Amino acid sequence: MVLMKKLNLDSPATKGDLEKLVTKKEFRRELGKLVTKKEFSRALAKLATKEELNQLEQVLRSEIRLTAKETKEEIKEEISQSQSQILDTLDKFLKELEVSRQERTIAAHQLSRTNEKLENHERRIAVLEERIPSSP
Length: 136
Fold this sequence. Notes:
By secondary structure, the protein is mainly α. The protein has a domain at 13-47. It contains four helices and no strands. The radius of gyration is 53 Å and the shape is rod-shaped.
């Protein structure tokens, strides 16, 4: 477009003034770039209505709630499985600990009996040694 130098805004524009601003060819070319009413109507028809947007919002909210609920259930299940594994492992450990305690109790009792027998044998040997005369 041609730039205007200085306009006299007090007087009406003449045909010459208008031709200086824009030619018919330029005007038609620029006009052709604009959206027509028909094109605008088609584009507008493709857009969702408020009602459709509200319905979509409700569907999305329901999906989000459902997904959150499913995720919560999955997390609960994973925690439950982990807890079961921990308790199973702890159970095995506690059983081994109990067996170990029982074995120590048995070993302590056996040691006590062995010590009693040893002391008994030492006393008997001492008595026998006292009875036997010593050699010159």
